[in-house]
Structures are given as structure tokens and as C-alpha cells.
Design a protein that fits this description.
Layout lengths: L5 H10 L11 H16 L6 H15 L4 H10 L1 E4 L4 H6 L1 H9 L18 E4 L6
Antiparallel strand pairs: 1-2
Helix pairs in contact: 1-3, 2-4, 3-4
Amino acid sequence: MSQYDLNEIIQKIKEKTPFDFKESHQGKPRALRIIVSKLHYSLDYENEPQATREKITQLLLYHGQFSREEIDAIFQSSAKETTAYSREFLKKHPEVAIAEARKSKEFPDEDEGEEGEKPREIKYIFPHYA
């Protein structure tokens, strides 16, 4: 499965051609993980992790070989909570953006000592496949 490059993956999705994988219990999930990883790193995953997830999910559902549950399982297994916020997260949570700006060098003395529980963003970390 790792022999597929990004262009082949995209072509198979467009044509709705099935992806080949060994019929073992590890074959299909492994193939899906490789496909999702390659698509993930080809998109704007750093700035828009949730939009990237949705785009990949829609592409693979359009293709038809994988179910939403299978796709969601791959993303859930790679989900990591972080306070290294993306632009997408900051747009949806302006209060976090304001708090982050106040901690910058422009406002060094504001809100010192008010270190509460920071909201966490979910991002996805996938292995890189050659």
C-alpha cells in the first residue's frame, strides 16, 4: 500500500477505483492510515486541522471504499490535545486569541499570574510515509 503516491491516491478517489490491500485484519486499517496520512500532509493541516479532517472524510466517503466509522477511528487514534493553536481554532475561539495576544511581547505585564486552565485544541499527528 505504501507504494501509492499522492497523485495515485487522488486519481483512485476521482475514479472511485478500489485501493488494494491485503485481506488480513491489519490490511484495510493500515491502507486507510497511509491514505489519510498522505492526504492530511498535502492539505493545510497546520492551520486548519478540523477542516482538513472534514475534507479528507468527504473525499473518502465519496470514493466509497471506507465507512465514516473507519475514517473516524483513524483520526481518533492520531488525535492529540495541544495548546499550540491553529488559525482555525483561534477564529472559532476569539477569547483564546485575545489571551494569547496579551501574553505576547506587546503586552508583557498584562494578566500576569492569571494562568488558568487553557483550552486545548485537537490536532492530528500521522506518520509520514514515503
